[in-house]
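re: the backbone from monday

yeah here it is again, tokenized this time
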């Protein structure tokens, strides 16, 4: 009887152990385990430093990318659930060879350390605002980040496939073997030869973030690298954003969908007049034939 009872209890116990083993911890880029409360910060944020200018922020699984008018930031973030306090330990890099007209920002060089501490609180039904202060190697300051609300939009290859543009650049994305392959070329005059290529994959179809792997970028004024990981997303205005990192170098890029060709009223009127003339000529021919 005891032996039978042991055999009955073993399968559930073994299944429970296997289930626990299947649950893998989420780790950040630095290899540290990310606590569940921190995942509440996953999202795309807009805001300001020192109540001036604007800053674009991506937070995902304990890591943060941010770009303002002068500096690119990268580092770690953690949320203390009991105090609703977010702590961000970031490195700030000044822009080196950015092309602001093309919305391509490249940061690198010596890093300045920034320590941010902010309160997470709701301004509507969601925890959508971070406000607080920071200390840096230069001077202290304040910040406010606002979640843009796009995180829970779905992701798909169909949303990205096709041609995107920025000033002086064209970006082409095509679906190949269950991923997107992309190629960017410079169309600037005179030609620069700047080009990049890589792949994009889905992470979670219920979220708007994609994983990106920059295979190579070359012949450009900066960020000529290979094997650089990053992320892609579609912002609230429908623009395609890239957040990429290679060691102590960061790159942000923004593209727009190529505008569909519009048929002007003049072209439409001309086509209508031409069709009318052709019909009149056919009627005359028919009358002469009769």
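seq for it, each position gets an aa:
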């Amino acid at each position: 009887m005891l032996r039978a009872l042991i055999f009955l209890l073993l399968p559930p116990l073994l299944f429970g152990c296997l289930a626990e083993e299947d649950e893998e911890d989420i780790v950040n880029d630095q290899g540290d385990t990310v606590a569940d409360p921190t995942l509440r910060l996953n999202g795309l944020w807009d805001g300001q430093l020192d109540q001036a200018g604007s800053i674009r922020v991506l937070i995902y699984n304990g890591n943060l990318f941010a770009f303002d008018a002068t500096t690119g930031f990268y580092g770690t973030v953690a949320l203390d659930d009991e105090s609703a306090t977010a702590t961000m330990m970031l490195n700030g890099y000044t822009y080196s060879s950015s092309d602001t007209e093309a919305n391509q920002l490249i940061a690198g060089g010596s890093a300045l350390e920034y320590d941010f501490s902010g309160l997470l609180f709701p301004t509507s039904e969601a925890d959508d605002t971070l406000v607080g202060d920071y200390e840096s190697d230069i001077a202290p300051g304040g910040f406010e980040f606002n979640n843009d609300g796009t995180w829970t939009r779905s992701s798909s290859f169909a949303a990205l496939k096709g041609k995107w543009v920025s000033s002086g650049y064209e970006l082409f994305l095509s679906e190949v073997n269950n991923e997107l392959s992309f190629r960017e070329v410079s169309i600037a005059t005179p030609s620069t030869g700047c080009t990049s290529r890589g792949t994009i994959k889905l992470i979670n179809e219920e979220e708007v973030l994609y994983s990106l792997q920059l295979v190579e970028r070359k012949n450009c004024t900066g960020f000529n690298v290979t094997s650089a990981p990053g992320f892609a997303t579609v912002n609230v205005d429908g623009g395609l954003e890239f957040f990429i990192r290679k060691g102590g170098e960061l790159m942000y890029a923004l593209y727009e969908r190529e505008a569909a060709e519009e048929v002007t009223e003049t072209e439409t009127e001309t086509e209508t007049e031409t069709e009318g003339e052709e019909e009149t000529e056919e009627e005359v021919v028919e009358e002469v034939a009769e």
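DSSP finds two helices and 17 strands in the chain. Confidence is low (pLDDT under 50) at residues 4-15, 17-22, 262-266.
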